[in-house]
Amino acid sequence: MSNLTNTNQTPLFSAEKIELIKKQFFPQNANSIEMEYCFSVAYQYNLDPILRQIFFVPRRSKNAEGKWIEKIEPLVGRDGFLAIAHKSGEFAGIKSWSEVKSIPKLENGSWKNVSDLIAICEVYRKDSDKAFRVEVAYSEYVQMTSSNEITHFWKTKPDTMLKKVAESQALRKAFNLSGLYSPEELGLGIVDESNAVIIDTQAVQNTAVVSNAFSDDEKEALKALGLSTEEKEGFVRLVGNTYGLSDKIKAFGYKFNPEKKIWFKKIA
User: Fold this and answer.
1) What are the domain boundaries of the chain?
2) What dihedral do alpha carbons 206, 216, 220, 250 form, nearest 10°?
3) What is the C-alpha separation between 240 and 222, in angstroms, rounded?
4) Per residue in 40-92, pLDDT tens?
5) C-alpha distance from residue 249 to each of 100, 219, 256, 264 (Å)
6) Which InterPro entries does the protein's record reference (predicted)?
């Protein structure tokens, strides 16, 4: 991982900085594959873990077979999403607030209007005359423990947590960012006022996998593009001539590793 470079061949991280990040910003149990994946995400979006724009945290969840596994995941806080937005040159502002609203909810087979806490976020771009707006409901995102109790952060900071979810989603929507999630969205914890991630251990035990589906239909679609796939240790990479196919490949959720010159993605 000592030669991570951007598209201009300028080193993103020096060898010394990479070693520092490995020692200080990864959990001790992180393996080389997880580190490589996390570095590739940081590289793709030009995010610096030392500046706390991206975090590498353990995430314990159930896989497709229902077994508990722990993997190191790259997560991005609000400041990380904002860093990407600012670097685009098109960011024109963000506004978020919350209010209690009456929303439709299905209860016992019937739709009813119920009161819920709603966080609203609007993100503005210089090249658009309309805001990118997201609304999220407390009842849909509040995290519960295995004993069906509200987790610590959602109990003590419900308004803050919900706004962070709305802000992350609105920024991702406005700048077409796929595969990046905040700790608040996944129920893992919170990025606090000092821009440090605090993990909610209760929520980690109760979090489901965000599935990156890798279906037979996808394989057939890739085959039609002249590509095949190789799967190894929770990752799949593309094999074949990918020239001129970048947009189509990105639509399937793949990321490009400039060091190894391969397209890959993590699968559940």
Assistant:
1) 15-208, 216-266
2) 0
3) 10
4) 889 889 999 988 889 998 876 666 666 777 788 899 988 899 999 999 999 99
5) 41, 12, 10, 10
6) Phage_lambda_Bet, RecT_fam
